[in-house]
Amino acid sequence: MLAALIVAPSLIGRGFERGSAARLAVGGAQGALVAFVILFTVGAIRRLDELQLRIHLEAIAISFAVTAAIVTAWRFVEAPALRASTTASGCGR
After folding, report:
1. pLDDT confidence of residue 86
2. Rounded to whole angstroms, what are the CA distances from 9 to 6, 16, 18, 39?
3. Residues 28 and 61 in one domain
4. Which among 12, 21, 64, 80 has most CB atoms closer than 10 A?
């Protein structure tokens, strides 16, 4: 449900012109929602006992490492295709 609250302003904001006050307000609301989710999650983790806290900390560390590996691998896969497309179009000169 929290994910839907974060994604909904993005969909609503697309209906407004880029740079308009309404679109900036929607973006600010989305930022406030993300901050709320972060604070809510940190508060929930702080109330855990030692074992649960250690399990959560290890899960966060593992997910960070896996995400970093995926992003790095994706960048290596994407880079040759990007160079090939810019060279073919003559932009790489």
Report:
1. 57
2. 6, 11, 14, 19
3. no
4. 12
**Is the same domain home to 43 and 55?**
no
The pair of structure tokens assigned to 29 is: 């609301």
How far does CA 85 lie from the centroid of its chain? 27
Q: What is the pLDDT of residues 35-48, one digit of tens each?
A: 998 899 899 999 99
User: Is residue 26 exposed (0-12), middle (13-18) or buried (19+ Cβ within 10 Å)?
Assistant: buried
Q: Which domain holds residue 3?
A: 1-47
Q: Are residues 43 and 1 in the same domain?
A: yes
In terms of domains, do 56 and 91 share one? yes
Element (H, E) at 26: helix 21-46
